[in-house]
Amino acid sequence: MKTRMVNFLSIFVVLLLPQVNLSLSVGDVSFWCNQTPYPQQCKYHMSYDIPFVSKKQFLTMAQQTALMVVSSSLRFADSLVSRVQHDGTEKSAWRTCLFFYSQAAFRLNRSLDSSLGSTADDVQTWLSAAASNIRACHGGFFDVNVTSDIFPLVMLNNVTELISNCLAVNFGFLRQEGIRREGVIKVLKKDGALMKRADCVVAQDGSGNFRTIREALQAAGRRTRRISDFVIRVKQGVYSEIVEVRQSNIVLIGDGVGKTVVTGNRRVADGFTLYESATFKVSGDGFKAVGMTFENTAGVAAGQAVAMASTADRSVFYRCSFKGYQDTLLAQSNRQFYKNCQIYGTVDFIFGNAAAVFQDCTIHLRKPQPGGGLVVTAQDRNGPHENTGFTIHRGRVMAAPDLAPFPQIKAFLGRPWGDFSRTVYLRSTLDTLVDPAGWLAWGGAPPRRCDTLDYGEFENHGTGASTHRRVKWRGYRVIRDRRTAEAYDVDRLINGKVWLPGTGVPFDADF
């Protein structure tokens, strides 16, 4: 199979789409390929002998092609098991790659499933997730510095370009359609999910059905109806276990922050990928957590060590806390909502490429290592058509107790992990520890990244909120009008008016 190495730092070409009914426009496959960001890859994989297709038909064909290549790559990666060294490092990278390729295939399948009645926004979300997941597979090898012979074998495909083409084409339909208040999520709406009686109870003292969260999840896996919530009450205690939630519609209800604690101490330096270092991982859609603490206790000198990693669509965290240092919270992909949460860390401790809103959350910056820096976010949007980004709405950025005695240590609101990184702070309180420049460039990245990113601040307040000395990047702006700011609210960024009412979690959809 002819393949090309993915160029992670390519700048995506913006597709110019006419203001007409796109589904009625027709042309041959070559014609449509020439309008995508990666026409050569498109033509190579889509050599269909079809004289005329509509743009909608072409999109479907492009999605099917991307799915075919992802599925083929997944089978090939799985076949490499005998060549994978059995030490933790290479094995971790390989497992992570299999997981993210399977997630990419799942999202591409959903984007093609006409029975779901998906909106263009749904499809754009799942295509963005698929692209993010492929990059996460590749990133896993870099995490643990794997350079063995399986590395190029897994890396050599151009599927990210194929998915980027799908994103560019679907973006035209999204722009034409706008955000509809219906679609796939309406099938999944429920009444007051958090008010349901618990299906099982976890208690370390033996007073519940199970002593560990993992045992409760195994019970949830045996249920027959996956569309309804399975509610797990987790009583007060410190649960030292590595947990992964792959089932859909799981609800965890703890006894409160600092009372129900899930803890682990894995770190990348010990041979785990970023994703596998996480204490708690969620990939099952519709996940909800209330009154829980998720922490990674590897420590300030441990380097990268994740407490929570979520790839789940429509995941919700309410009155939860996330504690770590570097890379505490990985909001990897899909639509996520955080309400009244507390997040602790030092460097890039809110990171990933989800479309995520953090509403009424407190961000606590902890004391770094001597000479170390402090950066809140590292958002990883890599293309202009990915409908992803982070919004901190009515949050507070402040020093944690261990940092408070050191006012000379300053922090940055974010730095661009991806070429089109997107992060905004809306009506938030920024304390004195925020550096006057506000934002930090990514070391070693091309200077153009500061032009293509999308960073903004709107009506923030506090002693660190002055924008007079902020960075002068083309991609940064002080948002002056409410209408511009509304593009980043709960309703528009994560389509929250559609699916959040059914969760039972309070939220403000807009300003």
Automatic annotation (TrEMBL):
Q: What is its EC number?
A: 3.1.1.11
Pathway annotation: Glycan metabolism; pectin degradation; 2-dehydro-3-deoxy-D-gluconate from pectin: step 1/5
Annotated Pectinesterase inhibitor domain ranges read 24-169
Signal peptide region: 1-23
Its UniProt entry gives the catalysed reaction(s) as: [(1->4)-alpha-D-galacturonosyl methyl ester](n) + n H2O = [(1->4)-alpha-D-galacturonosyl](n) + n methanol + n H(+)
One GO BP: pectin catabolic process
Molecular functions (GO terms): enzyme inhibitor activity; pectinesterase activity
Q: What is its main location?
A: secreted
Protein's recorded name: Pectinesterase
Q: Give the originating organism.
A: Daucus carota subsp. sativus (Carrot)
